[in-house]
Structure formats: C-alpha cells, structure tokens
Write a structure and sequence with these properties.
Blueprint lengths: L8 H11 L11 H13 L6 H9 L12 H21 L12 E5 L2 E5 L1 H11 L3 H8 L3 H4 L3 H7 L1 H9 L7 H34 L19 H7 L1
Antiparallel strand pairs: 1-2
C-alpha cells in the first residue's frame, strides 16, 4: 500500500478498534479526537514533525503502555496513523473549499446527534503543541477569533463549564456541528500565508551550501556566518 494512499473504511475501522482496545493506553485518543488533533496540526501556523505529535496520540503518560502484539503490528498501526495524517493533508489542501470532520454520532431519545466534544478536544490538544504560534489568532478581531468559538466551547474545560452553566447552549449543538467545517477552512486560510512563508524560508535555507557566500551579504562563507550561528542555536 502506498504511504499516501487514503485509508479505506476497513482500515479506519481497524485503526479505531486499536485505539479503543486494551492494547492502547487509557489516555489514548479515539479516532474522532485524532482527527481533530491532526486537523489543528495540519492547518496551524507552523510545521510540526510526526516525532513531535505522534506521542500525543497515545497520551502524555503512555510510556511503555502500548501493547503491540509484535513489531509487525506496531509498524502497521503507526503506518495507519501516518496515512490518516497524509489523507487529512490532502483533504485540507488550499484548493479544497469544504471540510468534513470525523465526528461520532449518538442516538438521543430516538434522534441522532453529533458528538463533537472529542473532535474539539483533539483540535485544542493539537493547538497546544504550538501555543505561541497560535497566539496571534487569539488576539485578532472578533470575526477571526470567532472561528475558534465552537471548538473552544466543546474542547476546553472553560467551555464545558459554560455549557454546564448555560444548558440552552447545548440546544445549539447541531448549529455548532454544521459550522465546524467552515471554521476549519477559515482557520486554514488565515494561517496559509504564514505556512507558505515558513515553507519558502525552509526551502531557501536548505539550498545554501555551507561553503557558499552567506545570503545575508556579509561576504563570509555561510558556515562562518549565519550557518554557524544556526549551529550554535
């Protein structure tokens, strides 16, 4: 299977079954929380390596609590998580105009209702990997920062307290669910220029030969100028 191939429904079910099984830690994310987590990582202000976000999937205190049957299963599950991430990268590409979060559905009094709490908690957890990076958005005008309102309402402790104090907010559940995808696209578009600039900088930096003249114009070799300073950092 190609590393970028979208997960089939059977593979999503396989990954979900592992995440909910006794083989995974108690703090492990479920598939909906994982979707929210990866969404925040993908559309956020900066690139985050898999080595940084993967431990969060299993929970902060996972340690050796993961109980893979054998190395083959470990490789398989990690491959599914990475492919799920890559699948979401394609779903959130610049040209995509809509996004559908992976949300559980529950039956309440004979009616189906979306369970968006898990997804929103995952999104907020993804934001917490780069809190400083997300700060400028939080300081923006209301129409921009409001893109986070439904996510924060269901995904933070203060939001849950607000829902408990004002039960009528829960009656707007379907409305909040309906705008989640729009909020994600709005957040993606807000951060897109930042991500592009960072990507361009990384590509330009990678092309500099350490023995070539430094791009800063000092006349020194890159390794004896900015390249040397970078090594010190």
């Amino acid at each position: 299977m190609l590393p970028d191939a979208p997960l089939s429904e059977a593979e999503i079910n396989e990954l979900e079954a592992f995440l909910l099984s006794d083989a995974s830690p108690a703090e492990c994310m479920d598939i909906s929380m994982l979707d929210g987590y990866l969404t925040a990582i993908i559309i956020g202000p900066g690139a985050i390596a898999a080595s940084e976000w993967m431990p969060g999937v299993w929970g902060e205190k996972a340690g050796d609590a993961l109980k893979f049957k054998n190395p083959a299963q470990a490789k398989r599950i990690q491959s599914l998580v990475l492919r799920f991430h890559n699948d979401r990268v394609h779903s959130l590409a610049e040209e995509e105009e809509a996004f559908e979060p992976l949300i559980y559905q529950d039956e309440v009094e004979g009616e189906t209702a979306p369970v968006i709490d898990e997804w929103c908690i995952g999104f907020i957890t993804g934001m917490q990997l780069d809190p400083e990076g997300w700060t400028p958005l939080l300081e923006e005008e209301d129409d921009i920062s409001a893109l986070l309102t439904p996510i924060a309402l269901y995904g933070t402790e203060s939001g849950q307290e607000e829902l408990a104090a004002e039960p009528e907010l829960r009656t707007q559940l379907h409305e909040h669910f309906d705008v989640l995808g729009e909020c994600v696209i709005g957040l993606r578009d807000y951060w897109l220029p930042v991500r592009k600039a960072a990507s361009t900088y990384r590509r330009a930096e990678a092309k500099v030969n350490r023995n070539a003249p430094c791009p800063c114009g000092s006349g020194k070799k890159y390794k004896n100028c900015c390249g040397g300073q970078e090594a010190l950092r």
